[in-house]
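Internal ticket - ligand job 180, flavin mononucleotide:
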Amino acid sequence: MKRTLVIYKSKYGATQAYARMISEALGCDRIMVDQMKLFSQFGEYENIVLCLPIYNGLLAGINTVKARYYRISEKNITLFMVGLTDLASEAEIDRTVIASLTEGMQHKFRIFYAKGRMTYRSLMPLDKMAWNKWIKYLRKKPEQKLNETEMEMLNHSRDKLDYIDEASIQSLIKYIRSLS
Ligand SMILES: Cc1cc2nc3c(=O)[nH]c(=O)nc-3n(C[C@H](O)[C@H](O)[C@H](O)COP(=O)(O)O)c2cc1C
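stdout (structure tokens):
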């Protein structure tokens, strides 16, 4: 198999958990986005798997990736996005892609999405505020317009939502294996 490197960013551990699952399933190396600055071995890898969480409609860590993009732009790049958006809300996921990636990246990257995790009491104050604002918005939405995940968000807004699941990485693993 071609050598693969997983590069990830995680604020509260959900994307890190996925990055670990992916690198263990592929038996490949894993670094954090912030390590891209000092990493000197990109030459050894042909495939890059970027694992990034979504915050307020944007991919966290993408600016660091963009600043170092010249170091990986020749490689096969796969993006694994982690959020809480309902799987059926493709338009919302697409909006994050468009807002976060350059057009060139949008065409080049193979993109996967999985649902992550949120534990209210672990959130830092600004994230708590943003989360509460989102919940307030959902409360105003007519009930028949809420999707399944949004209903769960309203019911568990002050405790924990955990969708981390090994099954969510399987199509990505299959794809990366097909590159060899
Ligand atoms: C303040 C805040 C904003 C968020 N914004 C979004 C969002 O715009 N879209 C989305 O799909 N998920 C959003 N999420 C959910 C996170 O992406 C999810 O909890 C993810 O698993 C976090 O990954 P991490 O623990 O690796 O940082 C948000 C979560 C918080 C706390």
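Auto-summary: The chain has a mean pLDDT of 96. Strands lie at 4-8, 29-32, 47-55, 58-59, 76-83, 110-115, 117-119, 160-162.
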